[in-house]
Every structure is written in structure tokens, then in C-alpha cells.
Amino acid sequence: MTEKEFDEPGDDLEQFDELEKNFQKVVSDLVADQNLTTFRAEYEKLHQSLVKSHSENLVLIEKCRQLNNDILANANKVSSVMQLSQSDQRTIAGLKHEFEKAWSLVEISQDKEQKSKDVIESLKAEVAKLSRLVEQGSSLAFTQETSLNETEQAVKVLKSDIQNQGMQLEQMKKELEDRKQVTETILADTAKLKEEFNTLSTDSAEAKASEQEVAQKIEQIHKDLNDIKQQIKQSNQTITDNINLIKQKKDDNENLKNYFYSTKSALKVNQEDLDNLRSEIAVRKTLLDNNRTKNDKTQADLVSTKQAIESTKTKFEETNKELQGIAEETAQMQNMLNNEKGIFQDLINQKKQNHKRIAACQQEIILRTTDLNQIQNNNNIARRTIENVRSEHHKLIESNIEEVHETAFVENQNSILLNQAIDIKIDTHNLRGDVIQIQKDIEDYQIKTQAARSNLLQIHEEVTNRENQLSEKTIQLAGINENIKHQASITESIKNDRDLVHRLLQTAMSDNTELSEETKALNLGIQQLKTDIREKDELCLSTHITQKTLGESLIQLTKEKNELAQQVADIDSQNTELRNHIQKSRYLLSQTELQNMKQQQVINDLQSIKYSLNESVTKKSCEITDIHEKIYLLNGELKTGSLAFKNKIETIENLKKELIREVKRHQFLLDSVQHSKALFKEHIQLTKALLMEQGKCRALEDELERPMNIHRWRFLEGTNPDLLQLFKMSMELKNKLMEKLYALQRINLKRDKAKEDLDKQEKHYKWAYTGNINEEMNYLNNVLKAKNQQFNEISNQVALGQSSVDEQKGVVLNLREMLREEKSGYYDMKKKVDVIRASTVKGSRNAQSELSREPKSAEVRFVGGGFSVSQMPSQQPDVKPLTAKSGFSPHIFAPSRPKTVMKKKLPSGWNPQRAQLQPFLPTVSGPNV
């Protein structure tokens, strides 16, 4: 929120004071009318709720200011912490890379130093041996012949061993194919894991969609508020329409009043109006006095509000002091965080216990893996035997080298030995041809093994089809699998808790931004509601005034109605008197007619009386007709008045309905006020959560300043790197074990589905197939049992011959290395003899001085950090091998080397397929597991 938005409540206070003044005026006007007591009570309730909402809005604005400042401070802290963590990670990675480079250079330098030392020692030993051979060449001629015979016999034995080991190589290839199948299964498991990763990514996308739905709901709420505002406007329009109707009816009433006033005396009405005006003037004077007293109170309230503002300033300073105290309390919270870390370690121990329980439930899996472990142990034993054989072979090579050195001098003296050596070369070429033929035979055997593999695959397919039918034997495994699923669900819940704790920092920033936006929206909504409430107050006042005028007009109409009723009663009494008079006159006429017979003398007198009476009767009859017409007119006027009265009653009922609607709206506003209170409570909870996150941020800052875990792992790297590697390996093995568990769980689910499908198919076949299914099933089960027995026998034979195959394979490799080393030593010895012969031609002294001369010391070089790289050997030209073109040995022909490539010997326990280990360095988010 901006400063302008926070400064607006000052203007709102002035407007609120004006509203209170208007309210007091309206209430004072309503006190006189007893008919509007319920309306006045509801109006006062509305005012009280408005006052409460205004006070709560002020509190919310202050809290929003504080929260905005806290959010900005926390955002700055988090950004600084993240920048520091990223810079630290970069520096750590760079230093680690440089450290690894330095160690690699050190290892290379050490290897080079050892090689140079070995070369120097070997050269010294060769010089000493050559000097001895020169002195003892004659005595060793006879021993050379015996050694050559022994080597020929050894070559024959090797040929026989090669033939025997061909079959063993085939078996080894079969084992390699089995291993390839295992690798294919592992690759399938990895593909499944990738699919799971894709599902998790879809879940994350769904979570994002749910967040978008929440945002859409918020927008709908805003739309609902706008709709409510439009409804309020519509209600205002209806109120204006009603006011216009009331005005029209007032005009009609005024016309009626004018008509009635023409019939009545104006003096009485004026006197009554004067009395009413005097009473109203007295009431207005009392209200003015009350308003003056209230204005004095409001001025006193303004003074008190100013004092309250000054007190809030002092409270603000006190809050700053309290914040400093909170900063001191954060240091104490760090200690609490360390205790929580201990609790986290306890949780890790509990997790380990759960893993142990899972291991107990997976005994059957371990029983299946024991066979592989036994095979690996046999391989390790075979490797050890191979190493022992290699050591013996190296000893034999050293003895053969000595013999070769002794025979070299004799070969230079005797050309017969050269011819024998040529024969040996021819034999070696023949051996190479035999080896090529053996390789071709191996390829043929590979083709045969592929055909056998296809047969085995068919057998496996038949076995899998029949294993699905054996559902009764797998019921016991179902209970164990359910336990495994239960434990896996527990582990997943633990992982989910860890992920939730890890995502708290990420969600905190988004929550803070959303809160800031929501507070802005709430402030805008509150301002709009204030304007709407003001408009409604004005409408209520206008309706109240109209109702008051209508009440006065109704009172006047009732009075006029009573007067008309009295007039009608007077007219009725006059009619009754006239009727009685007519009856009397008729009685008199009857008497006169009776007396006419008796008194004919009085007729003349009576005629005059008769004429007078007739005139009076005619006058009275005219008056009676006039009175009847007046009565008819009055009845019409009464009917029109009754209709107008009914219409007014209907309008009053409509107004009552509108009042009920407004009461409902008022209840809705009260509900919104309660909702705002609930939001305020949620705001308090969010502040608590924010304080917790602040503590966590502070703890992370302290960890960045004083990282404990990094020092511990660095200490392990410095003191016991092997133990650190073991930790890494154990963590990776645990992860792999969990992956295997998930894969096993999926396999079990697939197996259950396959069982259900198989049961359905069996039911279908029982109904559809007309033959004897049971007999065919028994026949196929017998065939399956026979094939299973054959398969078990083949596997037993493979297991029995595996150890011998490994041993013989190692022997073959050792023999190949021995042959190559003998050849290289033989030709190196020839080269040295040629060099010695050439040196005798030039001068034995110079040759001996050059041979006795030690190699120059290599220059010592250093790399940054104080590590010496190596003692680099001196750059001397390599001694070229003697060929037929050289002038020293025209009769010696260097044999062509075979194009076989030597395989790299890996150390024991090395797995080239295993991926490179990740650096086990903890970061802010936690240790890299």
C-alpha cells in the first residue's frame, strides 16, 4: 500500500463525524413519532454496527501497515540470504573443483615419480645383470637348451588349455547375456521411474491449476461485490421511483383536501394547525438545545482524539523498543531451533526404524537377492585367486627374463640358436591362427546361444502364462505385500512432510504478496461500502421524511372522515324528522277528508290552508331531492376516498416489504462484519505464522554465518575421507533400495491385475469352450513341471561350472599376458645385444661409461598451493628398434605385432557402470541426500 492510501483514514474520520451528527439529527426527529420506534431501533443498530466496522477498519489499516513493513523487511532479508547462499555455493563449488584438480595433479606426479624410480632401478639391475652375463656367458649356454625345451612343453600345455577353455568361454558368454537381461530389467525400472516423475509433474501442474482456481474465486467475490453495488443502485432507483409516486399521491391528496376544505370552515383548520405548529416549535427548541449540548460533547471528543493520537505516537515508540526486545528474543529462538534440530534427528532415527521394519517385511526379497550375493562372493574369490596366480606369473616372468638375458649372449655367438628362434616365431604365428579359429568357433557358439536364448524366452513366456494360473499359491504373499504397501505409505507420508517443510520458504513469499494485494482490495471495498452506506443513510432520511408527511396527511384525513360521518348522521336525523312530518301530514289529510263530509262549511278555509300546505310540501320535496342528490355525491366521494385509502394502504404495505428487504440487507451487512472479524482472526494467525517464518529466516541466516554441518563434513573429509565415501554410498544404496521397493510394489499391482484378468478369461473359457478344460490344464501343467525341472537342472549346471569358468578365464588372461611379456622381453634383449655389439666396435670404454651414467635429475615443478607436480623426465630421444635395414643386425627380423588391443585392467571392486557420486555438501535447503 502507498502512503496516500494510508493517509485516507484521516479524511474518513471527518466524514464519520459528519455522519454521526446527521444520525443524531435524524434520531431526534424520529423520537417525536411513536409509529417509527422499530425503524429508529433498527437505524440505531445499523449505526452501532457502522461504528464497530469503522473502528475495526482503523485497526486493520494499522495492522496492514505493520504487516507491509514486516513483509518488506523479511523480503529484503530473504533476498540477501539467498544471494549469500548462492555466492557461497559458487565459491564452494569453485574451491572443490580446484581442490580436485590439485589432488589429480598430485596423484599424476606421484605416479610419474614412481614410474621414473622403477625405470631407474630396472636400468641399474639390467646393467648389473649384463655385466654378469658377459662374464658368465659361456657357462649358461648349456642351461639355455634345457630352458627352451621346457618352454616348448609349456606351449603345448597352453594349447591344450586353450581348447578346454573354449567351452568355458561359451558358458561365460551365456552368463553375460543373463546379466544383460538384468540390465534391461533395470532400464525398464528406470523408465517406470521416469513415468512416475512425469505423473508427479502433472500433480504439480494440477496444484498450480488449483491455485488459479482460488484466484478465480477471489475474482468472483469481487464480481459479487460489484453486483451487490449494482443492486444497491437499483434499490436507490426504486426508492426514487417510490418517492415520485408518493409525490403524485400527495398531489392527489392535496386536490382532495382542497375539495374538502371548500365544504368546511377554514377557521377551525387554521386554529388546529396553529396549535400543532406551536407544539412542534416547542419540540424543535428542545432538540436544538440537545444538539448544542451534543456539539459541545463532540468538540470535547475531538480534543480527546488529538490526545489519543499523541498517545499512539508514544505507543509507536514503545513498539520500536519492543521490536528491539524481539530481536534479542530471536537469539534465544536460535537455541530453540538447535533443540528442534535434535528432534529432527530423532525423527530421522524413527525413519531408520521404519526402514528396519520394512526390511523385516522384505525377507523374501532378500532371499532372492542372496543368490546374487553368493555369485558376487564367488567372483571376488575368483579375483583373489587370479591375483595370486598373477603374482606367481610375475615371478615366473622374472625368471624367464633372466633366462632370456642369458640366452641372448649365446644366440649372438651361435647362429644355430637363431634358426631355432625363427622356428619358434613360426610356431607363434601358427598359434595365432589357432586363436583366430577359436574366435570363429566362439562366434558360432554365440549364434547357437542366441538360438538357445530364443528357446529360453519361449519357455519363459510359457512359464509366465502358467504362473498367472497358479493364484492359490500366491495368497500368502498378498498379506506380506499389504504390509509392504503400508510401510511404503508411511515412508511417503514422511517424505511429503519433509517436502512441505522444504517448501515453506517458497510459499511464504507468495503468501506475503497475496496478503498485500488482498489488503489493497479490502481497503478499496471498504471505501466503496462507506460510500454506499452514506447513500443509504440519505435515502433512509428521505424515506423517513416522506413517511412523516404521509402520517400527518393520514391524521388529517381521519379527522376529516370523522367530520363527514357526523354530517351524514345529522342529515339522516333531518331525513327521519321529515319523514315523520310527512306521515303526520298524511294523517291530517285523512282526518280532513273524513271531516269534509261532516264539515262542508270549513272547506273554503281549508282550501287556503291546503294551498299553503301544498306550496310548503313542494318546497320540502325540492329540498328532499336536493338532499338526495347531495347524499349521492357524498357517497361517490366516500367511495373515491375509500379507494384512495386502499391504494395508500397498498403503498404502505409495499414500503413495509421494502423495509423488510432493507432489514435483510442489514443482516447481510452484519454477516459481512462478522466475516471481517473472522478475517481479522485469520490475519492474527498469519502474523503468527509470519513470526515463525521470521524465526526460521533468522535461523537460516545464523546457519549461513556459522554453518555447523559444513564444518562437520569438511572435518570428515580431512580426517577420514573413506568414512565419508561410505556415508555417501550408504545414502545412495538406501535411495536405490527405496526405488526397488516402489518397483516391486508396482509389479505386485500388475500381478494382481493380471490375476483378475486371468480369472475372467478362465470363466469365459469355461462357458465358451466345449472341450474338457480340466484335462488339458492337467496335461499342460505336467508339461510345465517337466520344463521347470529341465530349467532347474540347467541352472544347477551353470552354477556348478561358473567357478571353474571364472578360474580358467583368469588363467587364460594370465597366459596371454605372459606370452606378450616374454615376446617383448625377448626382442628388447636382442636390441640391447645389438647395441652392445655396436659399442664394442666403437670402443668398449665409451659404451661402458655411457651405460654406467645415471639419468639426469628431473626439474622440480610446482603448482599453486605448494604441491610439487612431479619430477619430469628429461627429454631424450627414444631408442628405435633394430630392423632389417639397420647396419648392426642384418640377419634379425622383428616380428609384426598382433593387432590385438590390450584391455584396461580395472582395480578390484570397481564398477564402471556406476554413476559418479555427487558432492555430499549440505546447503541451506538441507543435506543433499
Automatic annotation (TrEMBL):
One of its GO terms (cellular component) is cytoskeleton. Keywords: Coiled coil. Residues 211-238, 554-581 form a coiled coil. The keyword NADP does not apply. Residues 870-895 are annotated as: Disordered. This is Flagellar associated protein. The lineage of its organism: Eukaryota, Metamonada, Parabasalia, Trichomonadida, Trichomonadidae.
